[in-house]
Design goal:
homodimer, alpha+beta, Butyryl-CoA Dehydrogenase, subunit A, domain 3, 7-stranded mixed beta sheet, two-stranded antiparallel sheet, 57% helix, globular
C-alpha cells in the first residue's frame, strides 16, 4: 500500500524561501500568519493527512460509495475522518472571522489542500466543493443568505455543491433546462435534473447546500438567461437552524473510472425551494468569480497526483532490484542493482519530481495572487493580481492536470507489471487523476479560454504583466554566469511564446478555426514555458542559499539539479508543440464529418 | 455501450492495395490465400468479432474473473464464445496442416487478430497466449512433444500460457528461482511460483499447457542457466490423450487496473511433471524466437485500442450537440453544433485515426515479413525480413502502445465527463490499453532492446535495409509534385534519425548511461518517423487510385487528408524528442539516489 509523506521541507521552501510569504502576509495585514504559526499549521496538517486521510485512500477506492433509495453511504472511515477534519477546525482556516472562520490567508489553506489531495483525492473533494458553494454565497449572496448558510458551511457541519451540468449540456450551459419559478414569498421552486454533482449526496454532513443554475421562465435563451440559486437539502430557517426536508433527491450515483469514494450524483429537484443569488439572469457572472478558484483547485490535483505517484515510484525504485547498471555494477553485494540506477527510470522519476515541485511553486504563487485579490487595498495592485490570475489559471489547470496524468502513468511504468495491480495503489492514481483533465472545463476548454477569450480577446494585453515579471527576472540575472543555463532558454521560450501568439492571431483574422486548431498545443507550450520560469526562480534561490550557508546543501543541490533536468529534458518538448502550431489548422478541418470512417 | 464495426474497407486497403498481399502470398506458395478467400475470411471474422466477441467486452470488465479454491471462472458468455471460436475453426487458421491447421498465412491471421483485440482485448488474450505456447513447441519441441501437444493446441480445445515472471524478477529473468529436477523417466519435476500468468487458469479449455522457464540444479547462474519446459495442467499420454491432474495450481488471481476478464494468475508448481524443450540451459534462446511474435501481438493491441477508441469517439462527436463552431454555425436547425465541428475535437479524432490506420499499415507490413520468415526458401530474402523485423518490432511495440494509450485518453476527453463514466465504455479502453505498455517488456525495455542491443550492438548495420527501402521510396517519388509534402519531411526525418543515432553512439563510447538516457525518446522519434513512411506510402497508393478510377473517391481523399494531418500535426512531435536526446543524460544521472526526496 502507498504511504504518503507530506513534503514539508519543499512546501516550506516554496512558501518561505521562494515566495517570502512572511512579508507577503504582513503587507496584506494577515497579522496572525507568522512563520511560527505557518510552520505549526503545516506540521499539524502533515500529521492529519498522513495519518488520517491517506490511509483511507485505497479502501475508499475499493468500496466506493453506496447508493440505496436516495441515501448515499461513504466508504468505511470517511465519516469519522470528516468529523476529525471538522473538529480540528480545518474547514475554518481561511474563512472570514465574521462567520466563524480563522481569517488566515487563502494561500496557507492552498498549501494544506495540496497535502489533502495528495493523500486522498476523493475525500478532499467533499470539503473542496463546500468551499465553492461558500465562496459563491459570500461573494454574491444577501446578508440574510449569509447569516442562514455561511456559519455552518464555514465550520464544516454542512457541506455544499455546485450544480451546473445536465445530461445534454456540460460545456454549453446556455442549453440548460432546469427551471425556477417565483413563489409568493420571493423564494423559487426549482424543477429539473442535474448530473455529475460531486459530493451531491453523502453521510458526512448534516445538511448539503446546493448552488444551482436554472432558468426563470421568460428569461432570454442561452447564457444570458441563467440565474443562480441556493437550494438546501434540508430547508433552513432564517436563524440558520434546519427545518424540514426540501424536495431535493439523489436519483443515483455514477460508476466511474476513478474517484470512487466521492459520490458523483444525479440530483433531482422537484419543486424544490430555492433562493436567488444575485440578480436575475446574471447567474453565469456570479459563477465565474468562483470558477477560477475551482480551476486552481483542480490544477492542484494535477500537481498532487504527480507528487503522490513520485513518492510511490521513488520508494519502489530505491528498493526493487532488477538488472545491473549499464555503466557498471552499483550494488555488488546484491543480486541486482536497485532500478533507480537505470537512466530511464530516473528520467521518469525526475519528470514526476519536476512537475510536482514546479507545479507546487506555480500554484503557491497563484495562491498568493488570490490573497491579493482578497485583501489588497490598492486597486492597481489588485487588478494586476487579477490579470495574472486570469492568464495563469487556465494554464495551470490544463498543463498540470495533463502532465500530472502523465506522471501517474510513469509511476505505473516504474513499477512494471506490479503497477497494473490494484494492491500497490499506483494504478488508482491514474484513474483518479484523469478526472482532473475533464471537470471544471476540459483541457480543450481551458485552452480556448486562454487563447480565444483571454489572449486574443485582449489583443495580447493580458500577457504583458506576467511577461514583464519574467523579463525583469531575466534582466536581473542576465550577467550571472551561474544562471546562464536557465536565463538564456527562458528568454528564448518567452520570445517564442510571443511570436507564436502573434502568428496565431494573424492567422485567426482570416480563419477563426486556427484558434481552436492551435489552442491545446498553445496552452501546453505556455505551460512548459511558465514552469521553466518557476524552475529558474527556484534555482536562483537555491544558488543564493548555497552561497551563504552550509545547512541543507543536499536539498539546494537537488533543487538546482532538478531545475537542470527540467530545462534539458522537459522544456524541449515545447518545440514539438510549437511546430504543430506553426503548421496550422488546415489539415484538421479539410475532412468532411461523414468521411472520418468508411 | 460501445459498438464495434470491423474496419473492413481499410483492412482491405492495407492488405490488398498497399501491400499487394495477392502476389506476396503467391510468391511464398500460399496457393489457398486468394483474394476471394481473404475477403470471405475477413468478412466472416468481422461478423464474429462484431456479434460475438465485442458484446462481451463490457460485461467482462464488470464481472471480471472469479477465483474459488484454485478454480477460475470467466465472465458470463466467455465460455460459449470461446466454443464458437473453436467450432468456427479460427484457432487453426494459420497453423500448419501437419497438426490440423489450415496452413493459411500468418499475416491473414494478424488482420483478424486486430479485429479480435479491438472487439475484446481480454478475450483475445486467451487464444493469444495459446499461440505463443504453440509456436514455442513447434519451433523447439521434439517430434514426440509436437504429437502430444500440438493437435489440441491447434484446434483450440487446449490453451497455453507462457510462465516467465516470478515475484522478485520480471525483466531480470536471470534471477529466477523455479527449479526443475530430472526424473528417472527423463521428465522433470518443477517446483516454484510464477506470477502474472495471463490465462493461467480458466474454464474455456479442457487442458492448459504451460511453457515454463526454470533452472536445473547445477546450472550456471543468470540467464545462461535457464531451461524451458512444457508443464500441462493435466498430464498427457504419448498419444495426446489426457491423463491425471498434474501438480500445477492457481494460487490466486490479481485485481488489476484493466483486462479484468483475463485471469492473471499466480501459478504454483509443486513437483509438477514437465518436459524439457530444446537443450538444457538454452531456454532463453528458445524464448526469444517467440518473444518477437508476442511483442507484435502487443503492438497490435496498441493500434486496436486507438481504433476502438476512435470508433466510440467519432460516433459521439457526430452526435453530441454542444456549442457553436467558432467559424460560423454549422447546424442551424439544432440547438448547437455537433462537436465534430470544433477543431480540437478533430485534432483528437485525427490523432486516433492516424495512429490506428498508420499502425494497421505498419503491423500488416510486419506480418508479411513474418510470412517471409516462415515460408521463404531464399535465405537472403529471409534474412532480410528477419533483420527488418528485429528492428521494427520494438519500435512497433513501444510506439503503438504508448500512442495507443494516448488515443484512448483522447477518446475520454472527447466524451467530456461522460468519458469518465463506466457505462460508456470509453474509460475501460484506457485501463485495458495500459497493460500493453507493460507486458512483454515495458516501453523502457523495448527502447533498450532497440538502441543498445540492436542498433548500437550492430554499429547501426541493422538500420540499413529498412532505411534503404525508405530511401528508394523517396527517390522514386522525389520528382512527383503531389508527393513533395510527404517526401521532403520524410527524407529529413530519416536523415535526422541517422544523425541522432551517430550522436548517441559517440556519446555512449565514453558514457554508457547516455544510451538509457536517450532510449525512450529515441524509440518514440523512430516510431514517428516510421509511421510517416507508411503514411507517405498510403498517400501514394491513394493518389494513384484517384488518378485511375472514380470509385471510392471519398475514401482515398480521406486517406490523403489523414496523411497530411499526420505529417503536419503528429510528426513534428519528433522535434521535442530529438531536442531531449540531444541534451544528453547528464542531468538525469547527477542526482544521488538518496537525494530525490527530503
Amino acid at each position: 500500500m502507498l504511504e504518503y509523506k507530506a513534503p514539508i521541507r519543499d512546501i516550506t521552501f516554496v512558501m518561505q524561501e521562494l515566495l517570502d510569504c512572511e512579508s507577503h502576509y504582513e503587507k496584506l495585514g494577515y497579522q496572525d500568519a507568522t512563520v511560527d504559526m505557518i510552520d505549526a499549521i503545516v506540521s499539524e496538517a502533515a500529521k492529519f493527512t498522513e495519518q488520517v486521510i491517506a490511509p483511507l485512500n485505497q479502501i475508499g477506492d475499493q468500496q466506493g460509495c453506496q447508493w440505496n433509495d436516495g441515501v448515499v453511504t461513504t466508504p468505511d472511515g470517511f465519516k469519522e475522518a470528516y468529523q476529525q477534519y471538522v473538529e480540528g477546525g480545518w474547514p475554518t482556516l481561511s474563512q472570514s472571522e465574521e462567520f466563524g472562520g480563522q481569517g488566515l490567508p487563502h494561500s496557507l489553506n492552498a498549501a494544506i489542500a495540496e497535502m489533502m489531495v495528495s493523500a486522498n483525492h476523493s475525500f478532499t473533494m467533499y470539503p473542496g466543493l463546500s468551499h465553492g458553494a461558500l465562496a459563491t454565497i459570500e461573494a454574491h449572496g444577501s446578508d440574510e443568505q449569509k447569516q442562514m448558510f455561511l456559519p455552518r458551511l464555514v465550520d464544516g457541519n454542512w457541506t455544499g455543491t455546485m450544480c451546473l451540468t445536465e445530461s445534454h449540456c456540460g460545456t454549453d450551459l446556455g442549453m440548460l433546462r432546469t427551471k425556477a419559478e417565483l413563489n409568493d414569498d420571493d423564494s423559487y421552486s426549482l424543477t429539473g435534473t442535474k448530473i455529475f454533482i460531486s459530493a451531491g449526496e453523502h453521510d458526512l454532513s448534516d445538511n448539503i447546500v446546493h448552488i444551482v443554475i436554472a432558468r426563470i421562465p421568460g428569461s432570454p435563451e442561452g447564457t444570458k438567461g441563467i440565474s443562480l440559486f441556493i437550494v438546501p437539502k434540508f430547508n433552513v430557517n432564517s436563524d440558520g437552524t434546519m427545518a424540514d426536508r426540501n424536495a431535493v433527491n439523489c436519483g443515483s450515483i455514477e460508476h466511474k473510472m476513478g474517484i470512487n469514494a466521492n459520490a458523483t450524483c444525479v440530483i433531482n429537484f422537484d419543486n424544490a425551494k430555492g433562493y436567488l443569488i444575485g440578480e436575475v439572469n446574471r447567474g453565469l457572472n456570479c459563477m465565474f468569480t468562483f470558477m477560477n478558484a475551482a480551476r486552481l483547485g483542480v490544477a492542484n490535483e494535477g500537481a498532487a497526483a504527480a507528487e503522490m505517484s513520485f513518492q510511490g515510484a521513488l520508494a519502489y525504485a530505491q528498493d526493487r532490484l532488477q538488472m545491473r547498471s549499464i555503466s557498471g555494477v552499483k550494488n555488488p553485494d546484491g543480486p541486482a542493482d536497485p532500478i533507480i540506477v537505470h537512466p530511464d527510470v530516473r528520467r521518469m522519476l525526475l519528470t514526476q519530481k519536476s512537475i510536482a515541485e514546479g507545479g507546487r511553486a506555480l500554484l503557491a504563487y497563484l495562491s498568493q495572487l488570490v490573497d491579493i485579490t482578497h485583501a489588497e487595498k490598492d486597486e492597481t495592485r489588485k487588478a494586476l493580481a487579477e490579470n495574472k490570475l486570469a492568464l495563469l489559471t487556465p494554464i495551470a489547470k490544463a498543463f498540470l492536470t495533463e502532465t500530472g496524468l502523465e506522471c501517474t502513468s510513469h509511476g505505473v511504468q516504474i513499477f512494471g507489471g506490479h503497477g497494473f495491480i490494484k494492491e500497490w495503489g499506483m494504478e488508482q492514481l491514474i484513474r483518479d487523476a484523469k478526472i482532473s483533465c475533464l471537470y471544471e472545463g476540459t483541457t480543450g476548454i481551458q485552452a480556448l479560454d486562454l487563447l480565444a477569450r483571454k489572449i486574443l480577446g485582449s489583443k495580447g494585453e493580458i500577457l504583458k504583466p506576467f511577461m514583464g515579471d519574467v523579463t525583469a527576472f531575466c534582466q536581473e540575472n542576465y550577467d550571472n554566469p551561474e544562471m546562464a543555463e536557465f536565463i538564456k532558454p527562458l528568454m528564448s521560450y518567452f520570445k517564442q511564446w510571443q511570436s507564436i501568439t502573434q502568428d496565431v492571431g494573424i492567422k485567426a483574422m482570416t480563419n477563426a478555426d486556427e484558434i481552436g486548431g492551435a489552442s491545446v498545443d498553445y496552452i501546453m507550450f505556455a505551460g512548459y514555458a511558465t514552469l521553466a520560469y518557476f524552475w529558474a526562480k527556484m534555482a536562483k534561490v537555491a544558488q543564493d542559499k548555497l552561497a551563504i550557508n552550509d545547512d541543507d546543501q543536499a536539498f539546494y543541490q537537488a533543487k538546482i539539479k532538478t531545475a537542470q533536468f527540467y530545462f534539458q529534458r522537459i522544456l524541449p518538448r515545447g518545440q514539438g508543440h510549437a511546430a504543430c502550431i506553426e503548421n496550422g489548422a488546415s489539415t484538421m478541418m479539410s475532412l468532411a464529418a461523414d468521411d472520418f470512417a468508411f
